[in-house]
Amino acid sequence: MNGAVPLTLMDVDLERGACRLHRREDLREKVGGSSLAAALYREYGLPGEDAFAPGQPLIFAIGPLTGYYPLMSKVVLGFKSPYSGDYVETHAGGRLALALRFSGLDALVIRGKSPRPVYLVLGDRHFACKDAGHLWGMDAVTTARTIRGSEPRGRGQRSILRIGPAGENLVKYACINVDTFRHFGRLGAGAVMGSKKLKAVMVSGDRSFSLPYQGTSYHKVYRQIYQRITGSGVMAKYHDLGTPVNVLVLNGLHSLPTRNLSATTFEGAAQISGEYFADKLLLRQIACSGCPVGCIHIGLLREKFSPEHEYYYKQVSYDHEPIFAMGSMLGIAPGEAVMLLLDEAEKWGLDVISCGVALAWATEARAAGLIGDEQTLVPLAFGKLEPYRQAIAAIATRANEFYRLLGEGTAVAAARYGGAEFACVLGQEMAGYATGPVYFVSQALGFRYSHLDSAGYQLDQQKTSMLEEALNYLEREERQRLMLTCLVACLFARNIYDQETIAAALAAAGFSELAQNLEERFTSLQRERWRVKKESGYDPHRVAIPRRFHEVKTLQGKLDAAFMETLRRAYAARIAGY
What we know:
By secondary structure, this protein is of the alpha+beta class. The chain has 3 domains: 7-205, 4-Layer Sandwich (Aldehyde Ferredoxin Oxidoreductase,  A, domain 1); 235-418, Aldehyde Ferredoxin Oxidoreductase Protein, subunit A, domain 2 (Orthogonal Bundle); 428-576, no CATH class. The two termini are 34 Å apart.
């Protein structure tokens, strides 16, 4: 094996219900994942057309190390976002990465629009485009259950992607559910699937592939990586409390967004903390395929449905971001109430972060008199559970004009009804870190408008006010993470897979050419990916940060709004220069 091994691409045409396989040696230099998806969008995408144009592709890409090393467990989905209007990415774990590898695929491109609702079943030696009329309108959970019951189990890895009614109704932050507990969550990939009349995709990987055991250092490198993951304690927190360990930490740092970011501490934080969930609600931890950590925390939700003490039992996954969005941001506690809202968003197929933050804005707008019950249909108020459950359904079904606009995004609704100054939008609805100016700029100008793009919250905790230091940090951190998202590794593994380890892992797996000159290679790929985004209509200079973020009290005290604005302008100029 070597770096010249061609990639295998499946190109699906939904209009014809057919597919073609391509072997592409020229794409190996793109490595995989993020850079491969961007290169394929440049080839197959329609950058000047609407995100819902039938020819716009959904591009699923894995990396060269998928299946070779632990924590190489993610898939990158590249697409033109109906939410932001430009080329973006969203990432998901679960079983999909290995299902694609065992199907012999490095990338899956889905184009066109079906004349009727369909779902796809595909793998190494089979492809079928099947009628989904009976699935249309089903929630995401029931859809997967129905497909599992009707399709033969077979051998190997099986992964099911599906959308709920929110995606069918083209809500612009509808998500794609992956294997029940993972998601392509942000920026509306579920709506793009809905626009294509594509309800679900089942990938069944039942082939094998060879590992480079003979005459190489692969076994040694694998063992070193595995022992560091399982024996060093580096990954222990992800298995124990998981990311909800952040709730009390951020609350103590005055950095937990609360009640639409009108505050940064929440009096109910102890009841939505990782400790609370672990002690009272945790059922089990599970892992993505190919991962020994088990960071996916599943809570047991018991919901009474009869006065005779009869209950539904449901399993609901939780992480820091969903807890913040449906917890502190809405003033909701305890954890049981948060899980009810998470379950509701899950069924309808909504991105839980955008949904929660949008409802937080709507709650403040109602309190300010900008909207009334005629718009919200229910009396939204911080801390009130039942109105939020009903409002989630109203967003997913686009129950009236207000909820139709709210389903376009918080900023769109605020432009119509007022309240733009307290819309908590940084490119898209904010994530759960109110640490300060570097983080706010890093999400607003991140490639996928995500806290995961460059982790500016880490630099905020160092209380930096040095412009050049912040700029270099954001650019360097994004490049380091791009290495991982091209392989495609879980970003929790960033302390495991440093550059030296990445080079050794690539060389030992037979990709010696890709292991050379990593810094130079990924600097070039970083710039290429930004150029694809800009070609699709993105202009970093147009990105604005709402007034609420200038007023917030963070761990540094009153935010330095002048520094944040200077950093925003300087970082936008750097991106524009790529």
